[in-house]
Amino acid sequence: MTPTGTILETPAMPQTNSPTDGALLRATDLRKQYGPTAALDGASFSVAPGEIVAVMGPSGSGKSTLLHCLAGIVEPDSGSITFAGRDVTGLGDEGRSALRRHDFGFVFQFGQLVPELTCLENVALPLRLTGTKRKVAERAAADWLGRLGIEGLAGKRQAEVSGGQGQRVAIARALVAAPRLIFAVEPTGALDSLNGEQVMELLTGAARDTGAAVVLVTHEARVAAYADRSVTVRDGRATDLGAGA
Q1: Which CATH architecture has domain 41-243?
Q2: Share of the chain above pLDDT 70, in %
Q3: What does pTM read for this prediction?
């Protein structure tokens, strides 16, 4: 069944982390300034192992900057970020890249497959970037294509698959290296409602099967309803709406 739910606005709350102890990823009092604009103004956030958290907010609210800081794409001006109990705030480019290769997976709005590669090669790519031999990486990629029911796409390229099929390939690519945390950015934004539901069921089902946590950035309440908990970002600050919001 497709989950239903409505994200309700709540009064401002103290900026706290998740009530869940032992967070996998925790950010505290993040601040990021772009010129005169404060993109983040004391945002705090956490996600527990295996938890799916939806991050919502209007355009310009700071949710993209929050995601970029959490994923190690940009450095916050101040505040702290820990991953698996390790302070990663001061990691250099190499350290942040290592996190993204080994511990993080990504699913983007338009899939962002490499057009020159086949679907099988796209899924194998994260393993190849860590030095895994081609045959080993492609066996793992073929296994994930099969698990998601798209083994028939292995030899096709991006231009030969539909948007929904491309997102399934992107999910396989995000999961093939067994990441501990997946960042999913508007994963259904380019899809119709039926394909969107199928993609969300595959993404959340696969994440729960593997124990991966998911940070789900979306503006759609129907997508956020797949999460265990929702956080809203406004004016650079994050408010936890709790479970079942």
Answers
A1: 3-Layer(aba) Sandwich (3.40)
A2: 89
A3: 0.85
